[in-house]
Write a structure and sequence with these properties.
By secondary structure, this protein is an alpha+beta fold. The chain has 3 helices and 12 strands, in the order αββαβββββββαβββ. The protein has one domain: Umud Fragment, subunit A. About 15% of the residues lie in helices and about 35% in strands. The chain is elongated and about 75 Å long.
């Protein structure tokens, strides 16, 4: 019976084949890091709040992380904070607003307030004088109604109408700055 002698060296699959093993290790680690950052950037990226339409929940210069993956998989619901691309005064802008109504919903704006499917939203700063009163939106497939949390200053679906599914870019998942107001959405 013959004995087979095993060598103590195992072969590793290497991405780089430089003679310097330390250089190979660093380059492989850097490649993996760049790959992970790239994947994260495809699905998540930071956004800075640049207006007051979402106060007091989001303030000027707050930083949030938004997820493209949530939109890709249609993973959003009533009340979510979404990032949408709309045309305002002739040019495109990215805005962050609250998703109030989705396909199949009915939005009514009256002197009493704003109702979605007959249930009035709890709005602390609703002022009929600032609203386009007696309007109704019946949302079809791929139609959405969005509003800012600050009713007095927000330019939203009450002004420019419904938005379409292809205008929704991402959903906010985390406020990470300022550090004392970190919140998961």
């Amino acid at each position: 019976m013959e004995k087979v002698k095993k060598s103590g060296k195992s072969k590793k699959i290497r991405l780089f084949r430089f003679k310097n093993e330390d250089l190979n290790g660093w380059l492989e680690s850097l490649t993996i890091l760049i790959f992970i950052i790239g994947i994260l950037y495809i699905f998540f990226w930071p956004a800075r709040i640049s207006g007051g339409s979402m106060t007091p929940n989001l303030n000027y210069n707050d930083m949030v992380t938004v997820s493209r993956a949530a939109v890709f998989f249609n993973n959003f619901n009533h009340g979510d904070l979404i990032l949408a691309r709309i045309e305002i005064l002739g040019h495109n802008e990215n805005i962050i607003k609250r998703l109030i109504a989705m396909p199949g919903d009915i939005v009514q704006i009256t002197e009493q307030g704003i109702a979605v499917n007959g249930d009035y939203l709890q709005l602390s700063d609703f002022n009929p004088a600032n609203q386009h009163i007696n309007r109704e939106f019946i949302l079809k497939d791929n139609e959405y109604f969005i509003m800012g949390d600050n009713q007095q200053t927000s330019i939203d679906s009450r002004h420019f109408g419904i938005i379409y599914r292809n205008q929704i870019i991402a959903r906010a998942v985390l406020r990470f700055f300022p550090l004392n107001r970190i919140q998961i959405y």
